């Protein structure tokens, strides 16, 4: 088992963000983490990446509690970019190379080239979407075991979205899993193995996409709209 | 043929149908080598596990076979391919007759209409 969450809870003061989440994820899977705004998706991802600590319960990645050992094998894409504006793309690549043992410079430059992003460009001259692409490329160029992608395709155009999803498909390996949180379900649905629905911090459903289609005769997107109808 | 998926049935079933159709219309010929699971998955923009599941099922049906180290191939059994084509045609005919029945035509009337239409 790559990831095990046992009775994971997180509260911010009196507000409960995660309520007793039990979740097991195997290796070699692509998982969609879906839920309306404020359902706890980002909180869960931040706990797994070690940015937040759980209020109670436990999360194990590859058998280790969240800490130095798990950070080595977890590649995290936050909602917002954290790269410094003054950096050029090449400097950002070097920064990642310094930081992570498992970073592949070659993979990064290859993807940058295919998206027509020049390594000499500095981040402050880039559009929001291009910055997001750079960040995702850096995160996906690691040979990590667990990729946590928080809204990876929100700000990019549909053509780049297709390329990014293809990148995710071709870059992950059988030993690794990818957790993608997103609202754009129909865009990612075809590449997902499993989906996890969160609602008010509770895990509502954890099934394979094929199971959902077989049992409900509808897409994950349609089911989501039904489950979370306002 | 481009890969197009609808949203109501499982994707692996749609992949199976797609490949069956490609074999039946001769886009894939008997004995042709298939791309790797990964390449096919990237081409169809689906998860490799889903592609794998579809290919395994086609293998179980005898339409594909795997040769260790060499890869995956379309069956060389041309009778099976002819069979598949007939089976797909049968499905279309069933669908046609069903729709015609909904419109209130008996099979004979439907046939007469069809003949007339081809005319």
Structural class of chain A: alpha/beta
Q: What number of domains of chain B?
A: 2
Q: Which sequence of strands runs across the widest sheet of chain B?
A: 1-2
Beta-strand percent range of chain B: 5-15%
CATH topology of chain A, which one?
Rossmann fold
Write the element-wise H/E pattern of chain B from the N-terminal end onward.
Answer: HHHEEHH
Number of helices of chain B: 5
CATH architecture label of chain A = 3-Layer(aba) Sandwich
Major sheet details of chain B? 2 strands, antiparallel
**Count of separate DSSP helical elements of chain A:** 9
% residues in beta strands of chain A: 25-35%
Describe the structure.
The complex is a heterodimer of chains A (230) and B (119). Chain A is α/β, with parallel strands linked by helices. Chain A contains 9 helices and 10 strands. Chain A has helices at 41-49, 68-73, 89-99, 105-114, 128-140, 158-171, 185-188, 209-216, 220-227; strands at residues 3-12, 15-25, 30-34, 56-61, 64-65, 74-77, 146-150, 177-181, 194-199, 202-208. In chain A, strands 6-7-8-3-9-10 form a 6-stranded mixed beta sheet, sandwiched between helices. A 4-stranded antiparallel beta sheet of chain A has the order 2-1-4-5, covered by helices on one side. In chain A, a hairpin with a 2-residue loop joins strand 9 and strand 10. In chain A, helix 4 (105-114) packs antiparallel against helix 5 (128-140) and helix 5 (128-140) packs parallel to helix 6. The termini of chain A are far apart. Chain B has 5 helices and 2 strands, in the order H-H-H-E-E-H-H. In chain B, strand 1 and strand 2 form a beta hairpin. The longest helix of chain B has 25 residues, at 78-102. A two-stranded antiparallel sheet of chain B has the order 1-2. Chain B is elongated, with a radius of gyration of 17 Å. Chain B folds into 2 domains: 11-76, Arc Repressor Mutant, subunit A; 80-118. The A-B interface holds A 28-30, 162, 165-166, 169-170, 186, 189-193, 209-210, 213-214, 217-219, 221-222 and B 5, 7-12, 38, 41-42, 44-50, 53.
